[in-house]
Amino acid sequence: MRQVTIIILMLTLGYSQKINLNSATLEELQSLELTDNQIESIIDYRLRNGYIRNIYDLLVISEISISDIHTIRNTVTVDIPQASTFEKDMLGHPIKWEGGYQMKAVQKGYQKYGWINFLNHRISTI
Question: If you classify domain 2-77 with CATH, what class do you get?
C-alpha cells in the first residue's frame, strides 16, 4: 500500500500543470521560488518586451541569475498564446497598429487598450 501511495504521489508531481510565464498572474508567479522583486521584474519584462520566447531570456533581468532559472525551469513553460481569428484577420486590414498610429497612441496612453480604442477615440473627436 505504501508503494502505491508513493507511486501516485510521484505521478501527481510529474504531471502537475506548469506555470506559463507569458500568461501567469501575479498570484501564479508568487507560487514559484522567486522573490517579489524578481516577480515584478518578470512582469515588467513582459510589458516592455512582449512574450518570453525562452526561459533563458530572463537572464537579461539583473535580479534573476542562472541558479534561479535552474530552480524554476521544471515548473514553468513559455508557451506563446495563439492569435485569435480577429487578430489574424486584422493583420491584413489597411489600418494597421504600427508606425505613426502606434506612436500617437503610445503618446496619448492608449497602448494598453489596443488600436481599436485609439481609432474609436480618433473618430469620435473628428
Answer: mainly alpha
